[in-house]
Design goal:
The protein has helices at residues 11-29, 34-52, 57-64, 68-77, 82-89, 103-106. The protein is mostly helical and 107 residues long. The protein is built from 6 helices and no strands.
Length: 107
């Protein structure tokens, strides 16, 4: 990881800051209220962490630094359907998975 000499920030942090600054400017210019911006950020961030943990709320809550009950309440406040999140992270039943031919049978 490269460090920026003046600020001590890694180059990835500088890129992220620029991207975030641009996004915030766009949201402000579009007239998005602060509460809506925060709500959208929370939704997207929590969904990203949940996806990383394949829908496991206990592991996601731990990474987010909150109790699992707090995560569950936050999901409800953000109108995120936890059932849909969990089901979206699971593999489909074998009857719905595409069939893959073996190499030997394809010859």
């Amino acid at each position: 990881m490269r460090m920026h000499r003046k600020s001590g920030l890694a180059s990835e942090d500088i890129i992220l800051k620029r991207e975030m600054d641009g996004l915030i400017t766009q949201m402000h210019s579009a007239g998005i209220p602060y509460a809506d911006a925060i709500r959208q950020f929370k939704k997207r961030y929590i969904l990203e962490v949940l996806a990383h943990h394949k829908g496991n709320q206990c592991k996601a809550a731990e990474e987010l630094g909150m109790h699992r009950n707090t995560l569950s309440r936050t999901l409800a406040e953000l109108d995120l359907d936890t059932t849909a999140i969990r089901n979206g992270m699971r593999r489909p039943p074998s009857s719905e998975r595409p069939r893959i031919q073996s190499i030997a049978s394809a010859r």
